[in-house]
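The aim of this short unit is practical: by the end, you should be able to scan a pair of folded records and say something sensible about each. We start with the first protein, listed as its amino acid sequence and then its structure tokens.
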Amino acid sequence: MAEPQRIFELYSSPHLKRPVSTDIIMRNVVMALAPVVAFSTYQFGVSALLLVLTGMTASVAAEFVFTRMSRRDNTLGDWSAAVTGLLLALTLPPGFPLWMAAVGGVISVALGKAVFGGLGVNIFNPALVGRAFLQATFPVAITTWTPAFVPGRFIETVPSTLAAPFMQPAPVADYVARAVDGFTGATPLALLKFQHIDTDNLRLLFGMTSGSAGETAALLILLCGAYLAVRRMLDWRIVAAVLGSVFIFSGAFYLAGHGKYPDPFFMLFSGGLMLGAVFMATDMVTSPTTPRGIWIYGVLIGAVTVVIRLKGGLPEGVMYAILLGNGVAPLIDTLTQPRIYGAPRKRLFPQKTAKQTEATK
């Protein structure tokens, strides 16, 4: 009697895989950002909540339209579009007109994902692509800030929130005048750069300042990121590299400038650094994958952020630093590929062989 034929199936590594899919990761990102959204609503009122809902709705709708137009499978179930809209909204001023936020959500999906072929093949972080577009298109609106903890913020919106498209929004002077003493509409980075006014680090740490809808509470953002890191849905090395490099480079400026530059703790807790380092620089698609490349990528983002903040014309530079890091991530991966065990180390500029030298003569 003939023995039964045995079939051996060969697969490439990894052979052990975690039962974690894209939709599970994205849902956890939304859950991790929920406390940030809740604090933003408490801090800026109903305008911040409407901004988040508008950004998410516009991004999800754009995702649906583009997948239908390209005849690709519907990807709304993976929650990536919702995360894109949520992150975009959290980088915008709380009184940003809703129609502009909707435009930003569409652009984030269109230019950040759809033109590259969808999720997984995009080069840049989609939310930051939308943010950069809004920065270039509506520079006045995106640099118009409203103070935090204004009385009546839960029953009325900032006048500019419901502005009609392409129409001059209502003045916000009366709204700003009701702000609690000690709270100004300017961000801490803008106050320091243009008015040379410092902000207490504890206020920055606990979110007692003005700023974008989701960037003020540094400690809360760090705790939310720790939740994802514990669940292994976030690479803590990128966060450590970004924050560590900002602390070191800004500390060097602080010591060399003898008080001319802000202290490194101010640089860590202010602006969008914490939100960008924890939730945007760690994007699995647009960040490097090699062990050494991850650290180089994070240090690059931190260094560029410090240079733009201290030496550039803009008070903030996190967005441009992360986009630059996204752009060079493939090159970093190429140059930092681990050496195969037993194989000779690759040279960045290989030496020519004798035959190649003779051929060029």
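Turning to the second protein, read its sequence before its tokens, just as you did above.
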Amino acid sequence: MKIAMIGTGYVGLVSGICFSDFGHDVVCVDKDPRKIEMLERGEIPIYEPGLQPLMSKNVEAGRLSFTLDLSAAVKGADAVFIAVGTPTRRGDGHADLSYVMAAAQEIAMAADRYTVIVTKSTVPVGTNRQVKHTIRKANPDLEFDVASNPEFLREGAAIDDFMKPDRVIVGVQSDRAAEVMANIYRPLYLRDFPIITTDLESAEMIKYASNGFLATKITFINEIAALCERVGADIKAVSRGMGLDGRIGNKFLHAGPGYGGSCFPKDTRALARIGQENAVPMQIVETVITVNDEIKRRMIDKVADLCDGSFNGKTIAVLGVTFKPNTDDMREAPSLTIIPAMIGGGAKVRVCDPQGHGEGDVLLPGVQWVADAYKAAQNADVLVILTEWNEFRALDLKRLAKRMRTAKLADLRNIYDWKAARKAGFEAYVSTGRGNFIADP
């Protein structure tokens, strides 16, 4: 089938490349000339493991191309996917749909045959009906259907999530549109992956409800971690004991400095706004948003305690600034709350992150970037682990401690434990929801 993918951000690029690997003819469209030039050179503007070779393979096979010309890409397409950004709108917390509607208008004017116009972007309930109205108004003679096909891609594991999904959600209004979508996802259907076909509103709601629930699960375990610290329980044991219950499951039960990224912060705010507009307040989700912000600030206090209550004059080494490992995404990362607080308090901050330097250079002014953890730790007063990259999971703690001016570790991802830290020569160790120690002066 011929597919046009409008937008080469994270969702659009991953989806377009994977659809081409299904055997479809895919053209990815973007308005940014620099992005298109980069993609045509075979370079990927985001960091996602395995994506670059998969792109090269399908470009060489003639199934994947990139263009600035939306009109040419849409003409003759069986399906056009809208995968543009829906950032949080300033002032009211709602999703900004201006890019979605602008794309819908352009598609309406370019389409020259029956086309299924598919919203891949995360959009509030009712948006696909607005898209349909926008297209009908722009081109009354066009024969088309709209469909909702929300994405469930985890950054760092997006290819597997696309190729081996837990489920594919498709919202449609006609059998004809359902058939087109079934043909697009036929490779997954043949391998028995669940494809759920439903109405537009249900498909839209599934995305928000899923992300709202996962954000709630993360925030719940982070609150339990704070309680564990007070009562002497170990959050790792608690999480494991909970997760073995099949009704709960073990995913998203890892305590840490709060959730971030491109989806959970934006989608929880949008879901809360949808509830307010429909007079059904999402009280749990609203609380989750508030508590997640509090958790990030609580992490600042943890580090401050290791600095004897003041960041002023201290050198702090930070390992990891992206919101999670295996991505270069800094959006809403805990580091964007924690590190500025340290710098604002008078600390000198040294940072090591395998992929975070590109975005972090702009988002974290005033930090010093270094190549590895041991350089970061040189003469530092405190070492803080913020992102659990694999290279930070097997560090030589003794070597780190010897390099530091005062060997203190804030392990905010619970990679190590206090016994190992003490044996290695650290004089203080704090974690999230489990054993800490501070040596006697």
